[in-house]
Specification:
458 residues, mainly alpha, 2 domains, three-stranded antiparallel sheet, two-stranded antiparallel sheet, 19 helices, 7 strands, 5% strand, flat, disordered N terminus
Amino acid sequence: MSRAVERKPRVEMAPWTVMKKNSKAAVFNKPRQLIRVFRDGIPLPLVVQGALEALQVALMLALLFVLPVFGIWLGGGLANGSLESSLQLSGQLWLKAHGAPLGISSLASDGVTEVSGLVTLTPLLFPVIPFLLAWRAGRRIARASYADQLWQGIAGALVAYGLFGFITGFAVRTSDVRPETWASILMPVLVLGLGVVIGTRREAGSWSRLIGVESVEWLSQASQASRWAGSYVAAVAKASLVAFLSAIALAGVVLAITLFMHWADGSNVYQQLRPGLIGGIVLTLAQLAMIPNLVIWTLSWLSGAGFSIGIGSQLTPLETTVGPLPAVPFLAALPTGSLNGAWLFMLLPVVAGVAAGWWFMREGENHFDDWLDRKIPMRWLSASLSTLFLGLVIGLGAGLLTALVSFISGGSIGIGRLVEIGPHMWLTGAWIALEVGVGVIIGYLVSPYLEPDPVLEN
């Protein structure tokens, strides 16, 4: 039987079976069995074990928010000084850590009209915490089950976590903040499920062992053409990921340099706010949680599509239009004034495409070019078509990945001008697809001249 990990079954005989089949005196004559029970604990059904793992994740994450909020409450930093309100705020942050939208409402400037909106902007460092905890839970579930039993532990974990999110959504509901019921269930389940599945795969060692299917045996039954097509698709997917990660890395470097150059401006904002010790710590942690969002916004700016900070604002290498902004220190690093030559930054995604094209050439899996070479006798035409197609598909893959992260990096704060924050996902994805595609073609064509020839070296 294919198993998730190579190990012995969880138990050879359940402890309660031993107790039933032997008398009390006989059991105490076997101290090794009792030691094993106290050491390993009473084995539980996989569904229950998965549920307990999910509840551990939920409670550990809750503590990460309860403790600092409780400290702020003790210091008198909350407008509503009740303990209940601080616990409700912790629960709202727990939901926000999973990307769940929160409906908010408040009175307008006239003090009579009630305005409402939906907070969808999520600092992307928050979901990393439950993901890592779920990754650990997935590995523990994999150690306790065979490959064909994994679904039981995963199902128990998802149901328990969804129930916890459902209860939290109702418990933290106030007159000003109303979590969406469906989001309180689905978003935590989505984050936990992603972490658990990746964690179980990490413990199993491969996706084939995870689902109980031997990939080597399955591939041996496929035709040569199918294997070549599969190798080409896999290489294209990896090259798209290389292009995307290279672009993200370049955007991170640009962001770091920009923040360093505007460090004094950010410090001035801190001094004007005078948040105090606790407020300064909270403000700093909130900005650190927004770093992944800022990296993606920087990538959107580098692509030429740009991003917005509120209705009517747009920041691109070609034009910058910004309205009134909140007093947040990292916003002091936004590009302003004359941007002569800023369009040169749009070449950085092309550089990421060059890296992807070079990587694809080294992978040596361009079987589509081999197929065209047999179908078209003119080599210059077949090589041109295969290279253009390669740039198209890798650029499309990188563009789709960029569109996805652009979507999750933006959002709304619910009320006021800042209901449109972040990049436009499809425009950013299209620009990245175009620039990466051009870079892939360049990188694939020039890489043979940059690689050493082993024949000449010998």
